[in-house]
Amino acid sequence: MTGPVALPSTLAVIERGWLSSNNVLFDDGDCASIVDTGYGTHALQTLQLVRAALGGRPLTRIVNTHMHADHVGGNAALQAEYGASISIPPGQADAVARWDEEALSYAPTGQYCPRFGYDTLLEPDSFVDLGRLAWQVVAAPGHDPNMVVLYNHDERILLSADALWEDGFGAIFPELEGKSGFAEERSVLEWIDRVQPRVVIPGHGPPFVEVAAALDRAQRRLDALEASPERNARSVARVMVKFWLLQVRSASMVDLTSHVAGSRYLKAINERYFADQTGTAVIERAVAELVAGGAAARHGDRIENLDD
Amino acid sequence: MSAASGLCEGCWRTIDEIVQWAGLSDVEKRAVWVEIDRRRDAA
Fold it and tell me: Which residues, in sequence order, are CB contacts of A213 under 8 Å at separation 6+?
């Protein structure tokens, strides 16, 4: 495909990388809304991007699909700049209100997220108006038990967050700690298959229209993960190393190991799946797998992030 | 973002280029890539 995906004129996608989620901006007439706000260390860039995209209109509403640090890290800065209200899924409302970094995953992943509060809740099956379109809030557990996605039935556009990407989906975190996540992800993929979106705007990567092919890839990946939860655990170890590399771009193996091995998720992976190995060995293997896949480079003791 | 160059330190694009990226055709994206390579080489 050579042209960009056709979207309603009231909707604009700012495609970010993998450290920050995409930001979807909606033109509400005199004002504007945004869905997801990127990672905290990118907040200044997010402000600049939003300012350039809004062309002087005020941002009045921030909507979040889930509370992971790469989706809500710009909330505080955008709210300080524009006074926008913040709407979040109900599942972690209490955790946000008391800023429980453990429950919100910032502590167990070792991720950074500036504190924010919320104003309203996105109840599943209710509708929110964004860009003069009505979006159904749909519960989408799997990657995160409390995540929601947004669906517009008229234009058949799905904001899929981390439930479906063009190639895969977000790591299934609940399974790491012995909770269910694969079955939930499967139900979400089945629901997407039933509603047959024309366009999917994922939380990461470009918008896409080849939805059936993406669902097929996602279902096969889910089959493989479910057949071997160890594979899921290894994939999460890679995600955690990669996420840290995206932030620091380059790190010594010692620094990388001490940061990642200290996180509770890595300890959970270690205890549950690789009890016969040290945390260092699990991280060494994650680094080797990233290097083999072209996502990192190793020069002696130094590990560098690779983007391409 | 680099204050001196006005470019993203990760992807070497301007704010406007990042804002517009998802709406560009493949041909237009390639034109930006040429510019990115030029900036990388010049740095």
Answer: none
Give me the residues of A, 220-259, that contact B with CB < 8 A: 249
Burial A134-167 (b: 16+ CB within 10 A, else e): ebbbbbbbbbbbbbbbbbbeebebbbbbbbbbbe
Nearest to B24 among A1, A4, A307 (CB): A4
Determine the distance in angstroms separating the CA of B36 from the nearest CA of chain A, rounded to an integer.
Answer: 13
Residue B19 to residue B23: CA distance in whole angstroms: 9
Q: d(Cα A134, Cα A154) in Å, to the nearest integer?
A: 8
Tokens 């900036």 found at? B39
- Nearest by Cα to A45 from B1, B4, B7: B1
Burial A249-271 (b: 16+ CB within 10 A, else e): eebebeebbebbbebebbebbbe
A62: left (phi over 0), alpha (psi -120 to 50) or beta: beta
Task: Kindly determine whether residue A14 and residue B25, on different chains, have CB atoms separated by under 8 Å.
Answer: no
Nearest beta carbon to residue A2 from set B1, B21, B25:
B25
Residue range A151-198, pLDDT digits in tens: 999 999 999 999 999 999 999 999 988 899 999 999 999 999 999 999
d(C-alpha B2, C-alpha B6), whole Å:
5
Report d(CA A263, CA A158) in Å as an integer. 33
Interface ipTM: 0.92
pTM over 0.95: no
What residues in B contact A159, CB-CB < 8 Å? none
